[in-house]
Design goal:
2 helices, mainly beta, single chain, about 500 residues, Immunoglobulin-like, 33 strands, four-stranded antiparallel beta sheet
Length: about 500
C-alpha cells in the first residue's frame, strides 16, 4: 500500500518548516566583484594547495583564478568549445572534478554534451594539465572514458565528484529527456540513464576505459543491468554532493510539473521516477505502489515561481558558523535558498533562508569549504555575508519555533511529541490522517515560550483508538507552521 498520500495535504506547508532559528542578517554578496562569467554552471577547486577556483562556462570554457576577492581577471584553463554542443538549454559543459591525486598526475575530468540531433550524447572525459603552465589544461590530452546516447537535449545531469572516502568517480545522468520519461529509463537498469554511476578511473577492466568497483550493487547480476549504476530512479540529478565528514550523498533531483525533491543517495536504492514525482504518484492522480522505493528527504511544490531545484552542500565554512552541518540548497527560477538539518536518520528542520532572486545554476566549495553561489544570468559568483555578531569560536544559540521528531517512532500505543516556542503566541498542535482529515487536537491555546512535550495515545477526539498507519502532526502558530510524520504500528 502507498503510505505517502498525506503529502498532497502537505503542499501548502511544505516550504514552511522552521529550523533552529534564522541566521541573523544573512545576505549574499559578490565574492569577486571584478569578475563576470558567461552562463556559469559550476564552481570548484583543485584541492592542490594552490587556493585557485575554477568556473565552468556552459559553452565549453573553464576559467581559473586565485581565490582573492580583489582579483580582476580570470584565465582560460580549458577551451573545448570545438566539441561541446550547448545549443539546448540544458546542454553544454556541465561538470568538472579533479583527480584525488591531481597534484601528482594532473588529471581532471569533465562532463559535456556533444553531437547533433542524431548523434547527441553525454561524454565523460579525462584531461591533463599542461606540463608548462599549471593554469592551462591541455585540450589535446582528452581521453574519453564514457559516452551515453541522449535522445533529447534536456535532463542530462552532468555532475561529477570523486568520493572523499573511496576515490571513485560518481557521475549523474538524467532520464534522457522528454516529458514524463517516455522511454521509462528511470526504472530501466539496462541503461545508464536516470542514474548516478560509480566507476574506477584508475583501473580499467576489459574493453572499458574505466573499472567497475567490485562492491557496486549490480556487480555480477545476470539480468543485463549496468554494473556502473550506484543508484537509479532519478529524473534529472543536476547537482549532487558527497559530504567528506559524513559520507552522505545529497541529491537535488529536478522534478516534472509539480514537485522538486532532495534525496539522500544510498547504495542500490531506487528513487522512484517515473512511478513517483517527489512523494506523489506519477502521473498526478494515478495510483502507485511505493514498495521498495526510496522517498525524498524533502520536497517542495512549484508555487511561488519555484520550478527547478539546485542541489547544494553540507555547510562547513567559517563565514556563517550557525549554519554548520546544515544542507544548503536552492531553486534556479525563484532564487530561494533553503537549509535543512538531518540528524540520526531524521529530518529535524527545513527552512527558507533567503530569497536572492538569482538564477542559481550551482553551488560550489573552495578549499576551505566556504560555499559559493553562481548566478547564471548575470555571471556573478556570490557567497554568504559574514555574520556581523558571531565569532567562529562562539556561535550563537538563536531562539526557535521548533517541532521535534516524535519518540518513539514507530510507536505503540503512545508517543511523545516535543516542541519549542520562542515567544508567547497562540498555537495549535493537531494530528491528521493521510487524507488530511484532523484526527485529534492535542492543544489549542495562547501558549507561553519555552520547551514542552505532550503525549498522544493513539486515540481521536472521540476517544476511539485509531488504526495503524502514517499520521501527520502539525504545530501552527499565528505566523509559522511545521509538520512531521509518524507511524502508529500495532
Amino acid at each position: 500500500m502507498l503510505k505517502i498520500k498525506y503529502f498532497v495535504f502537505m503542499c501548502f506547508v511544505a516550504l514552511l518548516f522552521t529550523s533552529r532559528g534564522q541566521p541573523q542578517d544573512l545576505d549574499v554578496v559578490e565574492a569577486f566583484p571584478n569578475l563576470r562569467f558567461t552562463s556559469p554552471v559550476f564552481i570548484t577547486h583543485s584541492n592542490d594547495g594552490s587556493n585557485r577556483l575554477f568556473v565552468l562556462e556552459q559553452a565549453g570554457l573553464i576559467k581559473v583564478f586565485p581565490n582573492d576577492p580583489n582579483i580582476t581577471t580570470a584565465e582560460t584553463f580549458l577551451d573545448i568549445r570545438d566539441r561541446v554542443n550547448d545549443s539546448g538549454g540544458e546542454m553544454g559543459l556541465l561538470g568538472l572534478a579533479f583527480h584525488p591525486d591531481f597534484n601528482d598526475n594532473g588529471f581532471f575530468y569533465v562532463d559535456y554534451t556533444t553531437g547533433d540531433r542524431d548523434t547527441r550524447r553525454t561524454v565523460v572525459s579525462r584531461f591533463q594539465v599542461s606540463q608548462n603552465d599549471p593554469n592551462r589544461g591541455d585540450a589535446d590530452s582528452e581521453f574519453i572514458l564514457l559516452e551515453v546516447p541522449q535522445f533529447q537535449s534536456n535532463h542530462n545531469g552532468g555532475m561529477l565528484q570523486f568520493g572523499p572516502a573511496d576515490g571513485f568517480l560518481y557521475i549523474s545522468l538524467g532520464d534522457g529527456g522528454g516529458g514524463g520519461d517516455p522511454r521509462e529509463n528511470g526504472q530501466d537498469r539496462t541503461t545508464l540513464l536516470g542514474s548516478i554511476l560509480r566507476i574506477d578511473v584508475d583501473n580499467p577492466t576489459g574493453d572499458l576505459n574505466y573499472g567497475i568497483p567490485p562492491d557496486n550493487p549490480l556487480v555480477g547480476n545476470l539480468r543485463g543491468f549496468r554494473e556502473e549504476i550506484w543508484i537509479y530512479g532519478l529524473r534529472n540529478p543536476w547537482r549532487f554532493s558527497i559530504d567528506a565528514e559524513t559520507g552522505e550523498m545529497w541529491i537535488g533531483d529536478v522534478g516534472q510539473g509539480s514537485w522538486e525533491e532532495i534525496d539522500l543517495g544510498e547504495k542500490g536504492n531506487n528513487y522512484g521516477w517515473n512511478i513517483m514525482e517527489g512523494f506523489h504518484c506519477f502521473p498526478p492522480g494515478s495510483n502507485c505502489d511505493d514498495t521498495d522505493l526510496t522517498l525524498p528527504i524533502v520536497e517542495y511544490s512549484h508555487d511561488f515561481n519555484r520550478r527547478s531545484v539546485t542541489g547544494g552542500y553540507i555547510y562547513r565554512g567559517a563565514l556563517r558558523p550557525e549554519l554548520d552541518g546544515a544542507y544548503i540548497y536552492g531553486d534556479f527560477t525563484s532564487g530561494d535558498i533553503w537549509m535543512l538539518r538531518y540528524e540520526n536518520a531524521q529530518l529535524t528542520s527545513d527552512s527558507l533562508l533567503i530569497n536572492t532572486e538569482l538564477g542559481i545554476s550551482s553551488f560550489g566549495l573552495d578549499a576551505n569549504d566556504e560555499l559559493y553561489i553562481l548566478d547564471y544570468f548575470d555571471g556573478v559568483v556570490f557567497r554568504f555575508s559574514e555574520n556581523p555578531t558571531t565569532s567562529v569560536s562562539e556561535p550563537t544559540s538563536p531562539t526557535e519555533f521548533a517541532l521535534n521528531q516524535n519518540y518513539p517512532n514507530p510507536f505503540n500505543p503512545s508517543t511523545t511529541i516535543r516542541y519549542r516556542l520562542e515567544t508567547l503566541t497562540r498555537v495549535e498542535l493537531s494530528i491528521y490522517n493521510t487524507l488530511g482529515q484532523k484526527v485529534k487536537t492535542l492543544l489549542n491555546k495562547l501558549h507561553e515560550s519555552g520547551e514542552f512535550q505532550i503525549q498522544w495515545d493513539g486515540t481521536n477526539d472521540s476517544g476511539e483508538t485509531v488504526s495503524s498507519g502514517v499520521y501527520l502532526y502539525q504545530l501552527k502558530s499565528e505566523e509559522l507552521v511545521q509538520t512531521r510524520k509518524m507511524i502508529l504500528m500495532k
